[in-house]
């Protein structure tokens, strides 16, 4: 993906909605395009998340594995939490809490992601208050939206 394609792509990502062209360029400078294979682990539950990722191509599964070294839980089967497609992102939780990953993220099919190392993204957001306000606001809106959708799913599952 060349610079112009990447800048247009990044500008369409919900997390970056409302940032300036200059901010988009700063983000692009931090990006590394990385290919992944089907079944490749991009983030492993219980390990520190290394980066923030945006899916360019392929599909990705977010899951709770059958055995968790992190929570010491044994599940009868994997639990799929979400399927991600181009334009979706992951790895944002550890930008907020710097804790080990709460789920594993695995390539469902081969594809590509844009990867931004957490340290580099954190440094950029620390140095630019305006950009940080926009990104953290958008992240909060996204996380609250996910919570509300999950609450609705639980409500629907409890209807007799």
How are the SSEs ordered, and which strands pair?
Blueprint: H1 3-11, H2 21-30, E1 32-36, E2 41-43, E3 51-57, E4 60-64, E5 79-84, E6 89-90, H3 93-97, E7 104-107, E8 111-117, H4 118-127, H5 129-157
Antiparallel strand pairs: 1-8, 2-7, 3-6, 3-8, 4-5, 4-7
Helix pairs in contact: 1-2, 4-5
Poorly predicted segments: none
Number of helices: 5
Topology order in helix (H) and strand (E) letters: HHEEEEEEHEEHH
Assembly type of the shown chains?
single chain
Helical residues, percent: 25-40%
Radius of gyration: 16 Å
Shape: globular
Named CATH architecture:
Sandwich
CATH topology: Jelly Rolls
**Secondary-structure class:** alpha+beta
Largest sheet: 4 strands, antiparallel
Overall mean pLDDT stands at 90
Strand portion, in percent? 15-25%
Ends: how far apart? Answer: 50 Å
What is the CATH class name? Mainly Beta
Quick one: CATH superfamily? Jelly Rolls
Spatial arrangement of strands, main beta sheet: 1-8-3-6
